[in-house]
């Protein structure tokens, strides 16, 4: 009986010790528990930008994977991204959004461009969730108190930076510009309206000889391009999509005018357009312009960061301008979350907190690994408005290279 009592006491002490150890482990686990927040990712897997979407979405996810591992872990925060196919369509974005919001309760949205901004800019102030875009901004959103944030200034700002640079390069005479555009998207209309206003305000820099309107996916633009050339166009702007670049280039080739350069933007840049044409050499002498790092093979900080994502975080993407847009919007997002968590702790982060961080903090280029220049938002616009500069890429002797770096953007009036 005495031996049984002693055995029982020993077992009780052992059990009590196990409970204490488990409780201690539970407290330690709670102390290191991660708070998870969702980000909604709007994508286009079946619409006009499906051909470049893999690089954009993969690079967005790569940034989140990197941040979770190297920053968020020590802060007690994990970010998750879920993507939805909007087909780059305003009505589809508007239709999807209530379900996305109910499912995820996101603290931020990764967007693509005009359809997202047009569909959501009136809703987000009530939803209190910021939308971030790697694209340029838009004139119709050039107002204060916005919940939409573009990593770059407007496309007309970027075009103005290119034309001021190219005019000097060509000797100083006013340029004659032909514009290929479309009325299928508010974003496309906004771009050519802004460039037309800049041309009107700056006749010493350029004249827009005509703006041609095309369908969403044009196949033959020979007649339209020939009309621009007859009016004296010495450069053709194609800022809508890759299909338009291909059709314009084919038209120039069929007319024997391959020496006429095109200027494109980040979403339909030289690499993606060259791939669509089947040979990068077919973009010889043309240009791309935007307020981000140019994804050339030069050993830049942005390139080194991408290689880290590719090798350490298994990001399956190409180093392209669509990838750069993904990097730009996601880096601004995670750095904003970082500012919030450092200020108030990991619990209770809201979309309003993320927006406030975007508006009140400077984002030096080092924080985005050179993907963006120094960024500072103000309440007057949803994009940077001061100290603007652009980078310009080209194809020279079959090589993708930087043609102009930190070219200043002249003043652009609202349109």
Automatic annotation (TrEMBL):
Residues 37-364 form the Leucine-binding protein domain. The keyword S-adenosyl-L-methionine does not apply. Belongs to the leucine-binding protein family. It comes from the Bacteria. InterPro entries: Leu-bd, Peripla_BP_I. This is Leucine-binding protein domain-containing protein. Residues 1-33 form the signal peptide. The keyword Signal applies. Keywords: Signal.
């Amino acid at each position: 009986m005495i031996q049984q009592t002693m055995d029982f006491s020993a077992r009780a002490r052992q059990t009590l010790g196990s409970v204490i150890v488990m409780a201690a482990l539970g407290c330690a686990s709670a102390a290191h528990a991660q708070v998870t927040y969702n980000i909604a990712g709007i994508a286009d897997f079946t619409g006009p930008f499906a051909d470049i979407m893999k690089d954009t979405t993969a690079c967005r996810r790569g940034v989140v994977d990197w941040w979770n591992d190297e920053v968020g872990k020590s802060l007690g925060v994990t970010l998750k991204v879920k993507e939805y196919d909007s087909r780059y369509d305003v009505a589809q974005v508007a239709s999807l959004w209530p379900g996305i919001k109910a499912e995820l309760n996101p603290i931020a949205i990764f967007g693509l461009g005009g359809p997202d901004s047009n569909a959501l800019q009136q809703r987000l102030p009530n939803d209190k969730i910021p939308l971030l875009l790697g694209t340029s901004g838009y004139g119709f959103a050039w107002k204060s108190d916005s919940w939409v944030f573009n990593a770059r200034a407007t496309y007309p700002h970027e075009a103005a930076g290119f034309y001021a640079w190219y005019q000097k390069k060509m000797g100083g005479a006013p340029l004659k510009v032909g514009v290929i555009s479309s009325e299928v998207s508010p974003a496309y209309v906004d771009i050519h309206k802004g460039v037309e206003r800049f041309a009107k305000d700056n006749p010493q820099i350029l004249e827009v000889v005509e703006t041609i309107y095309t369908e969403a996916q044009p196949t033959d633009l020979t007649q339209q391009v020939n009309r621009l050339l007859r009016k004296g166009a010495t450069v053709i702007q194609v800022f809508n999509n890759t299909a338009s670049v291909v059709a314009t280039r084919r038209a120039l080739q069929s007319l024997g005018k391959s020496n006429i350069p095109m200027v494109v933007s980040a979403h339909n840049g030289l690499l993606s357009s060259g791939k669509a044409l089947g040979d990068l050499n077919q973009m010889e002498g043309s240009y791309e312009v935007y307020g981000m790092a140019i994804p050339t093979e030069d050993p830049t900080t942005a390139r080194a960061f991408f290689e880290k994502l590719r090798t350490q975080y298994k990001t399956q993407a190409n180093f392209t301008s669509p990838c750069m847009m993904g990097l730009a919007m996601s880096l601004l997002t995670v750095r904003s979350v970082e500012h919030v968590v450092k200020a108030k702790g990991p619990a209770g982060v809201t979309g309003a907190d993320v927006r406030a961080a975007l508006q009140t903090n400077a984002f030096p280029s080092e924080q985005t690994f050179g993907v963006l220049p120094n960024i500072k938002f103000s309440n007057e616009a949803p994009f940077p408005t001061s100290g603007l500069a652009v980078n310009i890429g080209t194809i020279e002797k079959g090589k993708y290279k930087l043609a102009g770096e930190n070219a200043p953007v002249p003043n652009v009036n609202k349109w």
